[in-house]
Design brief:
By secondary structure, the chain is α/β, with parallel strands linked by helices. It has 9 helices and 10 strands.
């Protein structure tokens, strides 16, 4: 079975910074954490996957097809930016429903999908609110609902716990795990927080200066860092 998403020696150069020789794969149902210090290229890699930056042919594949030239709207990849970027002129309900208008579903199918995602994210009480009146955690939940309601092939999360009160972070982590268990959406999660990465589990790719230093099962990377940088960044193996 072909990976859902595959990168083969990806290089992207942007204003003095470059992603260099990135190779990785994401299978259906995977949860991959991109971990590394600020400025190492994690968010740039997410934006490349979603289609914000052009790539050469033969380096980015979706379900076995060369997708390097595909525009973002045809990739069917959900993306939740660090700043969430909700539509300010729409209430929460309209934000969540936005993508459903472009799907070939009946009105009843759209309603059922909307109701399911609203329940999973626990945002029913927010539906009539304006994005300007949401807390950081509420905004993240609404942004995730807007991405997931269209059943994307993959979900990209850029620092999903940033801007959330420290006391609310454990609940958000539980929500992320529950969503993955319930929906099975392949997910790429960006963070610079070692503890956050370890709590999520799954697979992890540690990045440094536009390159992947090590990729594998999260616990294995923490137990046996493969390079001096990974060992130092994880705190000598995180033990």
């Amino acid at each position: 079975m072909a990976p859902l998403l595959e990168l083969r020696n990806l290089t992207v150069r942007l204003n003095g910074f470059a992603l260099q020789g990135i190779s990785l794969s994401l299978m259906r149902g995977d949860y991959l954490v991109l971990l590394g210090p600020s400025g190492c290229g994690k968010s740039t890699l997410l934006r490349t996957l979603v289609g914000a930056y052009a790539v050469e042919p033969g380096v980015l594949f979706l379900e076995g097809e060369d997708a390097g030239a595909l525009p973002p709207h045809l990739r069917r990849i959900g993306y939740v930016a660090q700043s969430v970027d909700l539509f300010p002129h729409m209430d929460v309900a309209a934000n969540i429903r936005f993508g459903l208008a472009y799907l070939p579903l009946t009105a009843q199918e759209k309603r059922l999908q909307f109701e399911r995602i609203v329940e999973l994210l626990g945002v029913r009480a927010l539906l009539g609110r304006s994005p300007a009146n949401l807390s950081g955690g509420e905004g993240k939940r609404v942004a995730m609902a807007r991405s997931l309601v269209v059943s994307p092939r993959a979900l990209l999360l850029d620092e999903p716990l940033s801007g959330i009160d420290e006391f609310a972070r454990p609940e958000m982590l539980r929500t992320l795990r529950m969503l993955h268990d319930e929906l099975g959406t392949a997910t790429v999660h960006v963070t610079h927080d070692r503890d956050e990465a370890r709590r999520i589990g799954g697979r992890c790719a540690v990045m440094r200066a536009g390159k992947i230093e090590q990729i594998g099962a999260t616990e294995e990377i923490f137990r046996a860092p493969a390079t001096p940088f990974v060992a130092e960044f994880l705190g000598k193996g995180g033990e």
